[in-house]
Amino acid sequence: MKKFNILFLCTHNSARSVLGEALASTHQSGKFVGYSAGSTPGTMVNPFARELALEMGYDESKLLSKSWDEYGLPDAPKMDFIVTVCDNAAGEVCPFWPGKPATAHWGFPDPSQVQGTDEDKRRAFRDVMFGLKKRIDLLADLPLDTLDSLSLKEIHTKS
């Protein structure tokens, strides 16, 4: 079975995009290889995102905050889908993506901005995780070989 590369973008690549990467890579369908990056990546992955990714069984060595520039390089993996998960990244000028991948914006509030107890913060991260999982589940059910940007964007309206 062909695996589809999906790149999740968010400005700092520390929370939402990392969750997308882990969810796609560990999805029960086995159809995806997840990646994540940001326009101005931070120095580390948010500890709550790390915790959830590890609970999913995602490889800890892959939990890094990365620049989206590395995925525009000639030797980078070719992406089939590019999904922005924050409004800031959706409005930025992205690098050229080789291969003309289908693109979409699946906006979620930034869980790292939630104030309160650790449990309040965990709940915010889990809410984003469940929202992303729902959209990835919908994506997995589509005919991926023929999917275009318009179809990918429709997933946003169905979830």
Automatic annotation (TrEMBL):
InterPro entries: Ptyr_pPase, Ptyr_pPase_sf. The keyword NAD does not apply. It comes from the Bacteria. It holds the Pfam family LMWPc. GO terms for biological process: response to arsenic-containing substance. Keywords: Arsenical resistance. Residues 4-142 form the Phosphotyrosine protein phosphatase I domain. The keyword Cytoplasm does not apply. PANTHER family: ARSENATE REDUCTASE (PTHR43428). This is Protein tyrosine phosphatase.
